[in-house]
């Protein structure tokens, strides 16, 4: 069954337009996507929640329906963007994924409107600062128009993808990534946000991770910590640290899922499983 979706926008504190998709009925939940994602990445999760909740899927800055990054972009702008959506939605519940989870946790420490926050694998680093040595190579590859190579650099730095990817020779991995980009470009329709379009956003995502990677501890809101059993060890360690630090936290690990577990099924997610936990939490 097709679920009717409306598109809207809000204006953030600095004047930037933040666009969103809205579907469902009931108490509002705002879903903040992660890096190399857009609002569409959690469409199936929203559909799974739509019977009990009104779900807002904003595009974070730099992609899709939303305006560009401004000078000096950082977490405060991201929190202001979220605040604008929360106000328009009359919402008090947020679900954040990956870098979106970092923003959601920061918002939960600074915005009284956030009363419950669920997060899926925020990229925190419990044993030191976030690694940034990969960024210079990524920048050179992007400047040279080698988007596939830049994505491989970022993916390996974040330890994402199946373990076979990390063992594969880099030239082969770049070749396969390039073919994937070309195939996606060929299928893209109006309004689609492709991986090639998202590649430049990794500059800002890396800066956000570096800014926030060790600062998400004093969260007063009810908190649900979610992660996948097949995800990298550092993401599990991050959830361990948050579970110890946040007074009102509950932890759920999904056997068989990885960092993309909450996303659409075409990229390996199992959104119905994640939606079941969110529905229980946001009640």
From TrEMBL:
Residues 29-276 form the AB hydrolase-1 domain. It comes from the Bacteria. Keywords: Hydrolase. GO terms for molecular function: hydrolase activity. Pfam families: Abhydrolase_6 (PF12697). The keyword S-adenosyl-L-methionine does not apply. SUPFAM superfamilies: alpha/beta-Hydrolases. This is Alpha/beta hydrolase.
